[in-house]
Amino acid sequence: MNKAQFVELVQKHGEYSSKAAADAAIDAVTAAITEALSAKEDVALPGFGSFKTATQAAKEGKVPGTDKTYSKPATTVAKFAASSVLKEKVAGK
Q1: pTM, whole model, 2 decimals?
Q2: I want to staple 22 with a disulfide (CB 3.0 to 4.6 A). Which of 1, 10, 33, 69 is the partner?
Q3: 85 by DSSP, 3-state: which?
Q4: Contact indicator for 20, 12 with CB cutoff of 8 Å
Q5: Rounded (10°) CA dihedral 63, 65, 66, 72
């Protein structure tokens, strides 16, 4: 599903009067989640899931087939964990 199709689905379920209003709502939600995660705050949406941040440790490795090595600095990544309700609906239960 691309964004245009998703906007139509949100318009239908949210009973928005226009696609522009549904698109603005989607943009607001994603911007709010992004802002919270950037501030290292967790976001929990009951019945859907939770967004969290985690720190990936720095690592060094070797490029296969060569003697070259590389290093990857530690970084913060976003993670999503689906709720049990979402998992059950996706599984068709």
Answers
A1: 0.81
A2: 10
A3: helix
A4: no
A5: 0
Is residue 41 classed as helix, strand or coil in its secondary structure? coil
Instruction: Give CA angle at 90 (16, 38), nearest 5°.
Output: 65
Residue type, 55: T
What does the block give as tokens for 39? 């501030």
User: What sign does the dihedral 47-19-7-37 (CA atoms) show?
Assistant: negative
Question: Taking Cα atoms as reference points, which of 46, 41, 45 lies closest to residue 76?
Answer: 41
Both tokens assigned to 35: 């802002």
List pLDDT tens digits, range 22-50.
Answer: 999 999 999 999 999 999 999 999 999 99
Retrieve residue 6's tokens.
């998703």
Enter the DSSP assignment of 58: P
